[in-house]
Every structure is written in structure tokens, then in C-alpha cells.
Amino acid sequence: MNHTERLPRNRTYLMCPPKHFTVEYAINPWMDTTVPVDAVLALKQWEILRDTLGDLGHQVHVLDAVAGLPDMVYAANGAFSVDGTVYGARFRYPERSAEADAHREFYTTQGWSFAGPQHINEGEGDFAYLPGAYGGTVLAGYGFRTDPAAHAEAQEVLGRPVVSLRLVDPAFYHLDTALAALDDRNVTYYPEAFSTASQRVLAQLFPDAVLADRADAEAFGLNLVSDGRHVILNTEATAMGDKVRAAGYLPVHVDLSELKRGGGSVKCAVAELRG
To answer: Is 61 a residue of the active site?
Structure first.
């Protein structure tokens, strides 16, 4: 497939620097409190990711880090926006609950239409939006962090159809560890992270999807950010880079080894602002 068929679109993103990033507690299988985080390296890697997005022509807003919230660097979890409307997050674990307030303050002071949630959901961690798929479709994960009731709530807030997908592997506890939008209508995903029924749904909706294997998923190769042409993913995910290249996209590798200690990679660190 010719790369010229894959056209980038300028995006706006929100990121939060890992100024207070540590692994002080374990709320997913990737977190090991016995291995210290290299705070200097984590910040350097984050800055390279931010600069990479900027160099590709995207605008990056920065949310101030808050002391005592070590996971705030995973900015994707704080909310989910579609066409200027924001569905706020409500975290599963109390260790992260105050992050939702910081995100709410950002959106409300910026003039977004913000809806506070009644149900537990972790923002773009468990929601993906494809504006070109079936007139604009939200894919939503549940099983570990986000309550299924949040999917119906998001549909009411955003006015877009929401497709519920059940996650079944604790290693892939958020949708964004198991599935990613490559452009406005195409996805890549690791089938075995989903229930059998959800696999059938995905196969029906996205027959041309780029399928990943377990090694790709464990390398956080699906925790990526794509502008429709450039696919930013971590350096460990070399095989995943080959797969997206074969599908006509251009992989851009960034080292995020420190952020993986907390159970996240490129996508976890980047929320898309869809104004």
C-alpha cells in the first residue's frame, strides 16, 4: 500500500509531565513497587515524546502536574472529548481520584462543554473515537476499570453511538492497551484481549484491521498515537512498527521505558483534544 494514501491530520493533544511520577502502589500487573523509577530519565523521555508530536505539526497543551498524584502523567485517563464536548473521568482507584478534578478544571477554564460522570470510567484509557467510522463511532472498553453503565452515559453526553467491548486479560486492563485508532476509520487491536463476542463485533466492524499478537501487546505496541499517517509508538514495539508500516503508515519510535513501569506508554501519556 502506498504511503501517500495515508494522510496526516493536525491534532491537538494534552499531556502532563511526570514531575511527581513514582510507582508507590500497584493497581495493575505492570506496577512493581520494588523497582525505583528514574525520575530524570522519565522526564527526559516524556519531553522527547512531547517534542516529537510538536515536530510532526501537532499542538500540545501541558497540564500542570500535582504533587501526590504520581500517575497524572497518564493524561489520557482524565477525560474523553468529542467535538467540543467532554465526558469527565471518575477513577476506579482512590489513589487516582483527584486527577479527575485537575482535568475538569483544565477543560472548564478553557471553555469546553464539560459533563461530570455518574459512573466510573477512565477517560480515553477506555474510550476511542473514530470520526470516519459509521458517521462517528466510539469504541468503549470495560471489564477492569470502566463500568459498562458509563458507556450509555457517554453516549448520552456525546451523542455518538458507543460500542461496548469486554476486556478479559488483566494485563490489558484499559482499551488503549489492546486497541488503537490508526486514522479516522481504521484500527489495530490484539484479539485475545477481548471476549469471544467482542472479537466478533470487532471483526464485523473492522474487517481490514491490523491485528496484533500478544508480544506486540506486551510491548505496549498498541498503546500508540496516530495522526493518520505517523504512528508514534515505543521503541520496544519493533514488530508492531513493522505491522503498521506494512499497512501503509509510518512508525515513529520513542523510548518510554520508564513510563512502562507504571503500566503505560505513548497513548496513556497523550489525550486528544477534539474541539
So the answer is: no
Place of cell 471553555: 111
- What distance lies between CA 272 and its chain's CA centroid? 9
Catalytic residue among 58, 103, 151, 174: 174
How does pLDDT run across 193-207, given as a tens digit for each residue? Answer: 999 999 999 999 999
174 catalytic? Reply is yes
**Is the separation of the CB atoms in 76 and 60 below 8 Å?**
no
Domains annotated for the chain, with CATH where assigned, are: 3-272 (3.75.10.10)
253, with CB counted inside 10 A (0-12, 13-18, 19+), is middle
Only one residue has cell 458507556, namely 151
16, 103, 151, 268: the active-site residue: 268
Residues 133 and 104: beta-carbon distance below 8 Å: no
pTM of the full predicted structure? Answer: 0.96
